[in-house]
Amino acid sequence: MPLSEIGILPQSFCLNFTPPKPTSSLFFHPTGCGHFFCSHEYYIKRDFFPPLLLAYVRAGTLCLNMDNQHYEAGPGQLLLFDCTRPHHYYAAADGLEFLYVHFDGANSHELCSYINQTCGVLIDGPQNAKIETALLEMMAFYQSGGSESLFASSLRLYQMFSLFDEAIMSPCLRKNDDSIHRAIAYIRTHVGEKITLHQLAQISGLSDYYFSRLFKEMTGFSPNEFVINTRIDQTKVLLTNTPLSILDISKQVGYPNISNLITHFIRRVGVSPTQYRKSMISLASLPRQSKQE
User: Where are the beta strands (DSSP E) in the chain?
Assistant: First the structure.
């Protein structure tokens, strides 16, 4: 598309999208994308713009003023921010080249806020080059006249944001994530056994304190909470798919004392194991009843 905005050079490309309203709130969806080559005159200043912006700088410097903060993104760096807040971005000098996608959709603003809080507006993550590749593929597809379903365009964005995983991690967690994954695998394969914090820390090769801190950062749960949740999840599977008694299930998931299982189950699920099993049986019988009618 030919562009006439100040500071955007003729070899630039952009495209805007209007998603169908009934489904646009259900998925992430692009509202526009582009590959810009800019002179020092390029700038955008807005008080409000509905979508979010992800920009990858390939050459030069893209500056952003927002929330009383100044950011300068150089080659290989990303800017991610919510355009509903007042913002001003511009070329620091001639020679700016960047890729961008504006996007919106279900929980997209909340996700952007979470990423900004954990790793900032200016992102220099280990997967930035892969995000550049994904953006280039998006530009090439649309520039060649390609069209796709809302599901497919949404998937592009979800795959792109999956690459933020390592950027969100703290450097300590990034260094030790394999250790935490080993502990998680051990919990899931030894759910019926006694599992202690010290045991998990030893498996991970970390101190008890350091392991607990990194485990909580990765999973959102303390090691003990994660063990309990894993046992409750396995209890649900056994209640639904086996005729085992509650006592036998309790022993299989690591609770020799059935009262401990019942207490934790009610606290997390809201009903007793017996009530949960009855509700699952009722749900399973619904299709057969409808067929008979």
Answer: 13-16, 29-38, 43-46, 52-59, 62-66, 69-73, 78-82, 87-91, 96-104, 122-123
Averaged over successive runs of 10 residues, the pLDDT of the chain (293 residues) comes to: 76 88 80 96 95 98 97 98 97 98 94 91 93 96 89 91 78 75 94 96 93 90 96 96 96 96 96 94 66 43
29 within 8 A of 104, measured Cβ to Cβ: yes
Task: Return the SS3 of 35.
Answer: strand
Cβ contacts of 129 within 8 Å, gap of 6 or more: 76
Residue 248's alpha-carbon distances to 46, 174, 256, 279, 284, in angstroms, are 64, 40, 9, 20, 23
pTM: 0.73
Helices 208-219 and 223-241 cross at an angle (nearest 10°) of 50
